[in-house]
Amino acid sequence: METINASEFKAKCLAILDRVHATGEPVLILKRGKPVAELLPPRQTEGRYPQEELMGSVTVDGDIVGPVLPEDEWESLRS
Q1: How far apart are CA 26 and CA 48, in angstroms?
Q2: Is 19 exposed, middle or buried (0-12, 13-18, 19+ CB in 10 A)?
Q3: Which is nearest to 35 in space by CA: 69, 1, 64?
Q4: 3-class DSSP state of 39
Q5: CB 42 within 8 A of CB 26
Q6: Which CATH number is 1-42 given?
Q7: From the DSSP assignment, how many helices (H) and strands (E) are in the chain?
Q8: What is the Cα–Cα distance from 31 to 52, expressed in whole angstroms?
Q9: Residue 31 three-state SS
Q10: In whole angstroms, how far apart are CA 76 and each of 1, 64, 73?
Q11: If I label 47, which of 33, 65, 67, 71 is the partner at 20 to 30 A Cα–Cα?
Q12: Among residues 52, 28, 25, 51, which one has the least CA distance to residue 38?
């Protein structure tokens, strides 16, 4: 893993981000010789959309389209 000082990271941030994206190699950022952050490429998801990970995690119980209360309990219909 490549290490870089915070001052150098600040000066070359965009180029370093592009390199991490292109190579997938993480970069360890040091401040006064001590690690303060690790720059990693984003995790790849298997699906095209994040919502696809939720598929199968919801169960439908009853009518999800109709009103919750029957019409005779609606205040807006009372005169």
Answers
A1: 24
A2: middle
A3: 1
A4: strand
A5: no
A6: 3.40.1620.10
A7: 2, 3
A8: 40
A9: strand
A10: 66, 21, 9
A11: 65
A12: 28
**C-alpha distance across the termini of the chain, in Å:** 74
DSSP 70: -
Which single residue is written with the structure tokens 């370093």?
Answer: 16
Residue pLDDT tens, the chain, 79 long: 899 999 999 999 999 999 999 999 999 999 999 999 999 998 876 667 877 778 888 888 888 898 888 888 888 888 7
39: closest CA among 73, 13, 57, 65? 13
Query: Residue for token digits 């005169």?
Result: 79
What residue type is 42 in one-letter code?
Answer: P
Two tokens at 43?
A: 């995790």
Token output for 14: 């965009």
CA distance 63 to 44: 36
Would you list the domain boundaries of the chain?
1-42
